[in-house]
Amino acid sequence: MRTLMKVCLFGLAALALPLAAQDVAPDALVKSVTLEVVELIAKDKEIKAGGRAKLVAVIEAKVLPHFNFTAMTALAMGQNWGKSSPEQKKRLTDEFKTLLVRTYASALAAYSEQKLDFRPLRAKPTDTDVTVNVRVLQPGAQAVTIDYSMEKTASGWKVYDVMVGGVSLVANYRTEFANTVRNSSIDGLIKDLQKKNSSQEKK
Amino acid sequence: MRVFLIFLLAALGGCATPGEERDPRDPWEGFNRGVYRFNETVDQYVAQPVARAYVKVLHQEIRSRVGNFFANIGDIFIGVNNFLQGKFENGVNDWARFTFNSTIGLLGIHDVASEMGLEKHNEDFGQTFGRWGAPPGPYLILPFLGSSTVRDGAGTAVDWTVQPVGEVRPIALRNSLYGLYFVNTRADLLEAGRILEEAALDKYVFQRDAYLQRRRSLIYDGSPPREKLE
């Protein structure tokens, strides 16, 4: 009997672990990750002095796990996603991820302790696709809204698009990607992304 | 402000690839790319160097006061546009902002209204025309001013006709104010320009799409009908 109890308890504990990650509400997740990263940046002398590599490392460790880059790349590729081979899909996702992380790092580096306003989530508990809204407040200017489109997955809520001031990142890359594929090919786009990323690295 | 202006910035240097296939939203792409290149050149050799010098000479604190001063004047017609769009509560809010900031805020250099909970809005005649049902029309790059559309260009013309700085005399003072406005605005965008440079494969396309998305969002005050990406 005691052994059975133990097994049951063990089973429950094992179940509870992944459940914990899934149970975090999307708005709470955005808030805790944002505050954590903002605090890390504020404290870190290396990042404050412009240490971009360190900042990228922080983003990779804290922010990336909550993004679904495959979904983002698929959305940005539109119809061309279906025409890509698994190998091409993987390389596209990797390059797009690098590009987005670097851009995100630049945007964060420009952040100078503006006030953040985390808006309450307007969604039903059963929803699996929600938008989490954060506003960046600055005196003398209209607040900038950041909307995270998030989808519920087996491993918790994942971001698949970010809208800044009403501009969807994913949608914004759509035309660029489509143009490049039309004018050359999917491999041409991969090459362009690689070129873009390596030219940024040298800076 | 800086964060989203990353995407709106019209004046920046760089190369352009000619679009082989026309985007239905941008039938004048060839012409636009020409004006774009012109703007970039002006920006690279005049506007950016001046803005960089300005940033070096004036402390951030003072630059933000300058920004507040012009933002305060802007609130008058932001209010008018809110009234024209039937958003009376917002219009009253904007005029209250102008009243408090012009007095307690010392001619607008302190944004005391925001601290009182009166939020700053973003409105202009282009948005009002959009709200009244005017479609954007073809994308249009204006010399010096950058991204626009036929509708927003008409809006900008009205914005500039009615804005009160034009009435300032002597002319030399008015022109100095215009100069200060442009330099301060460009200085605010330096960081954004650098990020745009990093993010875009083709800056012309990236900027155009961001502008069109942004304007659509503004017309619906941040919540446009959702366009589902498939």
Written overview of the protein:
- The complex is a heterodimer of chains A (203) and B (230).
- Chain A has 203 residues and is of the alpha+beta class.
- Chain A has 9 helices and 5 strands.
- Chain A has a 5-stranded antiparallel beta sheet.
- In chain A, α5 (69-77) crosses α8 (169-183).
- Chain A starts with a helix and ends with a helix.
- Mean pLDDT of chain A is 84; it is low at 15-19.
- Chain B is globular.
- The two termini of chain B are 30 Å apart.
- Chain A binds chain B through residues 75, 78, 99, 102-103, 106-107, 110, 136-146, 161, 163-168, 170-176, 179-180, 182-183, 192-193, 196, 200, and chain B through 1-4, 6-7, 17, 19-21, 23, 64, 67-68, 71, 111, 114-115, 119-122, 191-192, 194-195, 198-202, 205-206, 209-210, 213-214, 216-218, 222, 224, 227, 229-230.
Strand-residue fraction of chain B?
under 5%
Biggest sheet overview of chain B? 2 strands, antiparallel
How many strand elements of chain B? 2
The percent range for helix content of chain A is: 55-70%
Mean pLDDT of chain B: 87
Spatial gap, N to C terminus of chain B: 30 Å
Strand order in the sheet with the most strands of chain A: 1-2-3-4-5
Rg on CA atoms of chain A, Å: 20 Å
How far do the termini of chain A sit from each other? 66 Å
Biggest sheet features of chain A: 5 strands, antiparallel
Q: From the alpha-carbon coordinates, what is the Rg of chain B to the nearest angstrom?
A: 18 Å
The succession of helices and strands of chain B, N to C, reads: HHHHHHEEHHHH
The share of residues in extended strands of chain A comes to: 15-25%
User: What is the molecular shape of chain A?
Assistant: globular
Unreliable stretches covering 5 or more consecutive residues of chain B = 1-19
Total of DSSP H or I helical runs spanning 4+ residues of chain A = 9
Percent of residues in helices of chain B comes to 55-70%
